[in-house]
C-alpha cells in the first residue's frame, strides 16, 4: 500500500493532504497556497484513492458531494414541476383525469397529463431521485466520517510551522512565554470551556468537537426517515380506507378485518353565526358569506366478540362513545379515524298517500324506507300498494328504460301498483320526484307525495401507519444533528514556542467573528498577540 | 485490506440497491395490492340467501364454488347473469356451486332482479363485510374456489358464456 | 380592540421607517469612524427599532386576545408576523455583530413585507375546522421565524453584492442585482397602487363567464386594464378594460400584477432619473466601510441559525399537524412541496459552502435565490396555485 510517511514519523493513509499528527503539508499542490483548505482536516477521503472495479466507480460516483448537490437540485426542480397544476389526487373525480386537465388548462394541461406530471411524486423516476439522494447520503457520510474521526483523534499538540502559518487566524509574538502569561491564558481558556492539552510547553486548546459530528448525525436521521418512508410499501404497515356512514348506521371499520365497528349517532355541521358567535368575526362573515365552524361525527365504537366470519351477524361490545372532529381523530388499536367528508340531507324515507284523482279522497299513506323498502303496503279496507320496481338513483338508460345509476337514494323513483276495491286488478303508476307517469293508460288513483325524511352521511378516513414512529425517530435525530452542527462550532487554538517566538494559530469550522472576539479576550493583557485574521490583512493590502 | 474494502462496498451497495429496487417494485404494484391471493384459502363468510337459507363458504368443501360479486345497477353484471344461470344448470350436479353476492342493495331490488332473470342459484346480499374481506372495488368480479377451498382464479369484468363454462370446468371436483 | 391593535401595527411601521433613517445616519456619520463601537445614531436606531418591534408585538397580542386565536390564520396576519420576525431576527443579529448597515437593508425589506401584507383583507377571520388546533400557533409561528432568519441572510447578501459587484462596467451581475432591486421596487409599486385606490374607494363590478362556462361576478378594487372572460362592466364611469383574458386565467390577479409591474417600472425609471446611475451603484457608497468577510459571515450564520428553525416549523411541525388534521403527514400539497423545495435549496446551499467552498459572491447569490423561493412560497403559492393552504389566500 502506498501509505505516506510524514517527516514526523506518522504514517498516513494514501491521499492524505495534511499529516494527521503534526499537520505538515503532504501534497505538493497544497504547499503553494497561502491558507490551508481545512475541510475534513485534510484527511484522505476514502473513495478518491481506489478506482479500479465497477463497484469502486459506482461508490465514487455517490461519494461525491458535487453529485449529491446535483441530485438535490434536480429533485428540487422536479418537485416544482408537480405544483404547476394540481396533482391527480386533488382534482374532482368527475371525469377521466386526461379530460379534466385538458378542459381546465388547455393544451398545457394535456401535455402535463401526457408527461405523467399529474402523478409526478409517485413516478418511478421521482422515487429513483429520492432513492439516489438516500444512497448518496449513506456513502458520502461513510466516506468522510471515518477519516475525519481518525484525523481529529490522531492530532498532536505541536503542529508543524507550515501548518500554523497557513491557518486563517495566526500571529507571531517576539516575546517569551512567561509562566504568568501561560497561567492567565490557560485559566481564561478553561473558563471558556476549552479542553487543554500540553506537550513540550506547546498548548492545544479545543472545544465543541462534537459539533463536527452534527452533519453525520443528521444524515443518519434522514436515512432513518427514508427507511420509514420505504416501509410504507410493506403490506400491513399502512392502511388507508374510507368509511361512509349514515346516521344510525353501524358498519365494520374497513382495514380492521372486521374487528371493530362504528356507529354514526349523528353528524353535525355548524357554520359561524353572526348573531351568536364572537362579534369580531362579523366583518369577515359579512364579506365571505358562510364560514364553517365544525364538522363532527358523534360515534360509538364497538369491538366484535367471538369468531369473526364476514357476513355473520356480529356480536358487538360497546367500547366507548366519542365525537370525531377535524383535528380530533378517534384512535383505537393503532388505527385512527378522521373526519374528512360528509353529505348533508341524503333522503332516507319517502311518504306517499293513495288518493282518488277525481274526489281527492285519501285512503291512507305509505312510508318507504329508501334503503330497504317493503314489497307491499296494506292500507286496510281493501286498499293496498305493491312496489313493482324501485330505482334509488333513477335515470332513463340508453334504451330509454327506467334504471338506477347506483344504490344511493339520490333520486328515488318507484313503480307502484295500486289495488283498490273498485280496481282489484290494480293500476300502475310511475312516481319519481316531481313526476307522475301513468304508463298503462289513465288511472283513477294516484300516489301523492307526502314528505321526505333525510339523514346526514359522514365520511371518515381510516388510517393505520406503523411507520410513523420510525419517521418520527428519523426526524428527531435529524433535528438533533442539525442543531448540533449549526448552533455549536468546533474551535481550536494552537500556541507554540519556536526560537524565542510565540506562534499562535486558531481554527473554527464557522463563525470566525465569534472566535476572534473570544481570542481577543483570552490574549488581552498577556503580552502575546492574539491570532490575527490573515484574510482581512490580505484585503487591506 | 484492499479486498476487504471491496467486499464491504459491494455489500453496502447491494443492500442499497435491493432496498431501492423493492421500493420501486412495490410502488409500481401498489394498485394491485389485493386481499385475495391466488393459491391461498378463500376467506370464509356466512350469508343468507333470498330464500332465507344460510350459506357458509367452508361448508362447500369438496365442491367447486363460483363466487360472483354484482349489483343490479351494474350493466355488465346484468348481461352475464343469464350465462351464469345457463352454466349453473349444466354444472350444479357435477359439484359446482354458484354464490352470487349483491353489493349492499335492498332486498326489494334484488328480489325483483332475481325474478326478472329467473335465477335459480343462491343470491345473497352483503352489507359490506364480505366485500371488504375480498377487497372488492369494481363490479363485476368473479372468484373461483376449488374443492379444497383455495382461490384458483379471479376475474374482474364481464364474462361471456364460454368463459363461464371454462371457469366451472376448472373447479369441477 | 382590533382597531386599537391596528394602531400599534401602524406605529410599528412608522418606527421601522424612522429606524432606517437613523441607521443611515449612523453610516454617514464620519465623526465616529471607529468601527468597533456603534455611534449614537446607531444606538438610537436600534432603540427605535426595538420600540417598533414591541409595538408590533403589542398589536399581535391584542389581536390574539380579541380573536381568541393566534393572529397567523390569514395572509395579512401571517405576512405581518413574518415582517415582525424579520425585525426580531435583525435585532438579535445586530447585537451579535453591531452593524448598522444590516439595519439599513433589513428594515426596508421588513417594512415592505408588512406593507404588502396590509394590502390583503384585514378582518379577523373565524377559524375553519382544519385550523382549530394549537398546532396552528406552533407550526405557523416557527415557520415564519425560520423564514425570517433566512431572510436576514438575504439582506446581508444584498449588502455583500452591492459592495462587491463592480459598478464601473455593465455585467451580468449588475443586471441581476438591478432585477432583484426592481423586485423590491415593484412590491413598493403594488403597495402604492393598492393604497391609493383603497383610499379613494375604487370599485368596478363585472359580469363575466367563468371557466366552467357559468356566469359570475367580480369586483375590481383597482381599475381594470384587463377584464375577465366575456366581461360586461356593470358600473358607470369606470375604466373600460383594454384587454380580455381567456377564461382559465384569473383576470383580476393578472390585472394586479400588471399594475404592480407598471408602477414598479415607473418608480424605477424615476429613481434612475434622479440618481443618474444604477440603484445598486447609488447604494454602493453606503457600504464603503463594511468588511465583506463579516457580511458574508452574517449571511452564512443566519442560514445556519434559520435552517434548523425552518426545518422544525416548516417540515417537522407541519408534518405532525398534517398527520392530525389531514390524516397523513405528507400529501404533496403545493405549499408542502414548496416548503420542501426551500429546504432542499438551503441544504444545497450549505453543502456548496461546506464542501465546495462557495464563499463570498457565489454564496450571496444563493442567499438571494433562497429568499426568492421563500417569497414565492408566500405569495405565488397562496395566490396562484390553489391547494389545501389556499384558505390563507383570501
Structure characterization notes:
The complex is a heterotrimer of chains A (541), B (173) and C (394). Chain A is 31% helix and 34% strand. Chain A has 541 residues and is of the alpha+beta class. Chain A folds into four domains: 108 residues; 93 residues, 2-Layer Sandwich (TATA-Binding Protein); 124 residues, no CATH class; 108 residues, no CATH class. Chain A is elongated, with a radius of gyration of 40 Å. Chain A starts with a strand and ends with a helix. Chain B is of the alpha/beta class. In chain B, helix 2 crosses helix 5. Chain C has two domains: 283 residues, no CATH class; 109 residues, no CATH class. Chain C has a three-stranded antiparallel β-sheet, with no helix packed on it. Chain C has a two-stranded parallel ribbon with strand order 3-5. The longest helix of chain C is centred in the last third of the chain and has 34 residues. Chain C is globular. At the A-B interface, helix 3, helix 6 and strand 15 of A face helix 1, helix 3 and helix 4 of B.
Task: Return residue spans of chain C where pLDDT drops below 50 for at least 5 consecutive residues.
Answer: none
Low-confidence stretches of chain A: none
| Largest pleated sheet of chain A | 6 strands, antiparallel
Our count of domains of chain C comes out at: 2
- Proportion of beta-strand residues of chain A: 25-35%
- Order of strands across the widest beta sheet of chain C? 2-1-4
| Quaternary structure state of the chains depicted | heterotrimer
**How many distinct beta strands of chain C?**
5
Q: Domain count of chain A, please report it.
A: 4
Q: What kind of sheet is the major sheet of chain C?
A: 3 strands, antiparallel
What is the largest interface, and how many residues per chain? A-C, 68 and 65 residues
- Strand portion of chain C: under 5%
Q: Which term fits the overall shape of chain A?
A: elongated
How many β-strand runs of chain A?
24
* Rg estimate of chain A, integer Å: 40 Å
Work out the helicity level of chain C. Answer: 55-70%
Over the alpha carbons, how many angstroms does the gyration radius of chain C reach?
22 Å
- Structural class of chain C, please? mainly alpha
pLDDT averaged residue by residue of chain C: 89
Distance between the termini of chain A: 46 Å
Amino acid at each position: 500500500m502506498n501509505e505516506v510517511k510524514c517527516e514526523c514519523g506518522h504514517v498516513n493513509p494514501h491521499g492524505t493532504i495534511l499529516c494527521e499528527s503534526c499537520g505538515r503539508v503532504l501534497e505538493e499542490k497544497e504547499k503553494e497556497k497561502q491558507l490551508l483548505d481545512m475541510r475534513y482536516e485534510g484527511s484522505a477521503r476514502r473513495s478518491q484513492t481506489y478506482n479500479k472495479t465497477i463497484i469502486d466507480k459506482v461508490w465514487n460516483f455517490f461519494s461525491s458531494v458535487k453529485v449529491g448537490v446535483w441530485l438535490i437540485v434536480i429533485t428540487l426542480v422536479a418537485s416544482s414541476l408537480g405544483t404547476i397544476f394540481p396533482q391527480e389526487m386533488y382534482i374532482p373525480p368527475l371525469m377521466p383525469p386526461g379530460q379534466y386537465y385538458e378542459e381546465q388548462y388547455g393544451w398545457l394541461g394535456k401535455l402535463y397529463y401526457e408527461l405523467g406530471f399529474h402523478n409526478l411524486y409517485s413516478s418511478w423516476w421521482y422515487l429513483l431521485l429520492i432513492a439516489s439522494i438516500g444512497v448518496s447520503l449513506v456513502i458520502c457520510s461513510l466516506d468522510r466520517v471515518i477519516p475525519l474521526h481518525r484525523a481529529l483523534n490522531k492530532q498532536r499538540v505541536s503542529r508543524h510551522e507550515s501548518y500554523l502559518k497557513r491557518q486563517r487566524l495566526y500571529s507571531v509574538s517576539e516575546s517569551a512565554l512567561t509562566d504568568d502569561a501561560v497561567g492567565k491564558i490557560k485559566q481564561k481558556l478553561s473558563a471558556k470551556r476549552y479542553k487543554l492539552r500540553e506537550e513540550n510547553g506547546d498548548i492545544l486548546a479545543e472545544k465543541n468537537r462534537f459539533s463536527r459530528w452534527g452533519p453525520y448525525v443528521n444524515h443518519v436521521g434522514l436515512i432513518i426517515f427514508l427507511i420509514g418512508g420505504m416501509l410504507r410499501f410493506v403490506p400491513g404497515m399502512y392502511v388507508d380506507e374510507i368509511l361512509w356512514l349514515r346516521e344510525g348506521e353501524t358498519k365494520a371499520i374497513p382495514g380492521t378485518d372486521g374487528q371493530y365497528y362504528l356507529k354514526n349517532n349523528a353528524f353535525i355541521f355548524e357554520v359561524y353565526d353572526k348573531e351568536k358567535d364572537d362579534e369580531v368575526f362579523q366583518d369577515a362573515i359579512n364579506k365571505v358569506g358562510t364560514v364553517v365552524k365544525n364538522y363532527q361525527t358523534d360515534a360509538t365504537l364497538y369491538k366484535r366478540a367471538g369468531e369473526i366470519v364476514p357476513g355473520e351477524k356480529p356480536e358487538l361490545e360497546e367500547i366507548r362513545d366519542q365525537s370525531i372532529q377535524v383535528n380530533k381523530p378517534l384512535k383505537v388499536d393503532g388505527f385512527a379515524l378522521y373526519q374528512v367528508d360528509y353529505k348533508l340531507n341524503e333522503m332516507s324515507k319517502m311518504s306517499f298517500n293513495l288518493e282518488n284523482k277525481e274526489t281527492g279522497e285519501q285512503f291512507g299513506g305509505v312510508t318507504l324506507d329508501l334503503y330497504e323498502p317493503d314489497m307491499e303496503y296494506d292500507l286496510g279496507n281493501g286498499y293496498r300498494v305493491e312496489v313493482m320496481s324501485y330505482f334509488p338513483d333513477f335515470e332513463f338508460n340508453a334504451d330509454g328504460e327506467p334504471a338506477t345509476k347506483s344504490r344511493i337514494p339520490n333520486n328515488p323513483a318507484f313503480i307502484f301498483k295500486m289495488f283498490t276495491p273498485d280496481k282489484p286488478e290494480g293500476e300502475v303508476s310511475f312516481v319519481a320526484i316531481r313526476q307522475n307517469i301513468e304508463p298503462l293508460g289513465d288511472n283513477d288513483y294516484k300516489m301523492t307525495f307526502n314528505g321526505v325524511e333525510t339523514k346526514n352521511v359522514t365520511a371518515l378516513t381510516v388510517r393505520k401507519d406503523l411507520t410513523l414512529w420510525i419517521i418520527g425517530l428519523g426526524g428527531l435525530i435529524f433535528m438533533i444533528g442539525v442543531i448540533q452542527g449549526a448552533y455549536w462550532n468546533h474551535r481550536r487554538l494552537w500556541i507554540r514556542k519556536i526560537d524565542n517566538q510565540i506562534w499562535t494559530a486558531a481554527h473554527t469550522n464557522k463563525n470566525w467573528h465569534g472566535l476572534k472576539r473570544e481570542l481577543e479576550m483570552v490574549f488581552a493583557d498577556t503580552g502575546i498577540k492574539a491570532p490575527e485574521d490573515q484574510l482581512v490583512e490580505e484585503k487591506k493590502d | 485490506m484492499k479486498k476487504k474494502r471491496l467486499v464491504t462496498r459491494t455489500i453496502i451497495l447491494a443492500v442499497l440497491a435491493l432496498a431501492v429496487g423493492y421500493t420501486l417494485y412495490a410502488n409500481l404494484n401498489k394498485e394491485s395490492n389485493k386481499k385475495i391471493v391466488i393459491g391461498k384459502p378463500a376467506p370464509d363468510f356466512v350469508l343468507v340467501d333470498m330464500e332465507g337459507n344460510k350459506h357458509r363458504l367452508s361448508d362447500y368443501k369438496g365442491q367447486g364454488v363460483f363466487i360472483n360479486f354484482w349489483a343490479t345497477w351494474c350493466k355488465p353484471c346484468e348481461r352475464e347473469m343469464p350465462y351464469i344461470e345457463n352454466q349453473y344448470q349444466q354444472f350444479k350436479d357435477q359439484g359446482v356451486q354458484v354464490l352470487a353476492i349483491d353489493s349492499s342493495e335492498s332486498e326489494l331490488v334484488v328480489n325483483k332482479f332475481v325474478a326478472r332473470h329467473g335465477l335459480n342459484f343462491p343470491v345473497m346480499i352483503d352489507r359490506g363485510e364480505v366485500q371488504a374481506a375480498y377487497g372488492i372495488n369494481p363490479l363485476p368480479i368473479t372468484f373461483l374456489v376449488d374443492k379444497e377451498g383455495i382461490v384458483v382464479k379471479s376475474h374482474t369484468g364481464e364474462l361471456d358464456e364460454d368463459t363461464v363454462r371454462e371457469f366451472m370446468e376448472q373447479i369441477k371436483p | 380592540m382590533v382597531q386599537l391593535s391596528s394602531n400599534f401595527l401602524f406605529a410599528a411601521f412608522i418606527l421601522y421607517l424612522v429606524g432606517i433613517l437613523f441607521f443611515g445616519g449612523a453610516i454617514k456619520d464620519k465623526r465616529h469612524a471607529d468601527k468597533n463601537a456603534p455611534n449614537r445614531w446607531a444606538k438610537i436606531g436600534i432603540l427605535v427599532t426595538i420600540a417598533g418591534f414591541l409595538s408590533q408585538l403589542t398589536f399581535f397580542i391584542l389581536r390574539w386576545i380579541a380573536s381568541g386565536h393566534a393572529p397567523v390564520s390569514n395572509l395579512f396576519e401571517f405576512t405581518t408576523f413574518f415582517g415582525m420576525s424579520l425585525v426580531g431576527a435583525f435585532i438579535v443579529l445586530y447585537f451579535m455583530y453591531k452593524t448598522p448597515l444590516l439595519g439599513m437593508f433589513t428594515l426596508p425589506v421588513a417594512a415592505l413585507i408588512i406593507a404588502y401584507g396590509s394590502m390583503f383583507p384585514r378582518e379577523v377571520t373565524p377559524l375553519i375546522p382544519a385550523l382549530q388546533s394549537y398546532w396552528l400557533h406552533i407550526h405557523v409561528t416557527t415557520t415564519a421565524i425560520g423564514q425570517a432568519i433566512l431572510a436576514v441572510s438575504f439582506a446581508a447578501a444584498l449588502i455583500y453584492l452591492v459592495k462587491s459587484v463592480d459598478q464601473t462596467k455593465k455585467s451580468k451581475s449588475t443586471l441581476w442585482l438591478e432585477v432583484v432591486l426592481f423586485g423590491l421596487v415593484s412590491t413598493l409599486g403594488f403597495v402604492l397602487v393598492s393604497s391609493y385606490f383603497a383610499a379613494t374607494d375604487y370599485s368596478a363590478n363585472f359580469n363575466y363567464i367563468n371557466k366552467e362556462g357559468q356566469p359570475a361576478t367580480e369586483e375590481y378594487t383597482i381599475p381594470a386594464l384587463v377584464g375577465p372572460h366575456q366581461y360586461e362592466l356593470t358600473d358607470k364611469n369606470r375604466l373600460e378594460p383594454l384587454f380580455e383574458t381567456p377564461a382559465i386565467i384569473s383576470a383580476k390577479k393578472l390585472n394586479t400584477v400588471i399594475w404592480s409591474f407598471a408602477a414598479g417600472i415607473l418608480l424605477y425609471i424615476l429613481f434612475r432619473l434622479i440618481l443618474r446611475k444604477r440603484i445598486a451603484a447609488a447604494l454602493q457608497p453606503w457600504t464603503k466601510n463594511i468588511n465583506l468577510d463579516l457580511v458574508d459571515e452574517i449571511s452564512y450564520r443566519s442560514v445556519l441559525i434559520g435552517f434548523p428553525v425552518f426545518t422544525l416549523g416548516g417540515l417537522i411541525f407541519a408534518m405532525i399537524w398534517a398527520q392530525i388534521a389531514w390524516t397523513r403527514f405528507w400529501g404533496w400539497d403545493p405549499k408542502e412541496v414548496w416548503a420542501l423545495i426551500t429546504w432542499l435549496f438551503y441544504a444545497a446551499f450549505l453543502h456548496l459552502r461546506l464542501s465546495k467552498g462557495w464563499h463570498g459572491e457565489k454564496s450571496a447569490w444563493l442567499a438571494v435565490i433562497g429568499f426568492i423561493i421563500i417569497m414565492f412560497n408566500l405569495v405565488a403559492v397562496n395566490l396562484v396555485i390553489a391547494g389545501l393552504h389556499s384558505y390563507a389566500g383570501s
